[in-house]
Amino acid sequence: MSRSIVSASIRGLGWEAPRAQVICGRTFRGETSLPDRRYYWRRKILDKSCRTILFETTVNLIANGMLTLLRDREWLARLRQDAALAPRVVEELLRFEPPVHFRSRKTLAKIDIAGTTIPKGAPLVLLFASGNRDPQRFANPDRFDPDRGDNPHFGFGGGPHYCIGAPLARLETEAALAALAKRLVDPRLLEDPPPYRPGAWLRGPEHLMLGIGGVVS
Asked: Which of 167, 153, 144, 159 is nearest to 66 (CA)?
């Protein structure tokens, strides 16, 4: 599904279908050369888009998740004892500490909301992370609580812009956090807060410095 969507996006940049399919295929196979250097920068844009969709957001979600669990030892211990809790942990992480904090959009029609009229074509910045901690929607929004029953978060956006990689990101993060919780003996943060990657919309630590007592095989 990712290949077809990215290919369609390339055609939206003005490329003909055959070249769109060729560039998309090369991107997904990891090839870096193109016969026509005129398309170099367009290919670089596509490579960055694929990297963001398929890699960077999940890396940040896993790092944010491990950081949150190391700050909440109760849930780290619970996940170590019961890996079946991983889906609930990940869903709450997507609300509590999502990798994507905001995105920009443009209105397709006039919108009346909260006593304000937003005209058609107006640029908007949608603050996903802010909505995820709306006290009118979530009880104790600043508390990490995987036992939360009603959790309609914006961790993957929504509507036609819903993240196409959401199912894979969920599976990867569940597997990673369950394995880390089980295999790392007495993990602890050596640096808190850790340094964060530059940029505002994509949030995650550059690295997590940990001390451990060992690794369970």
From this structure: 144
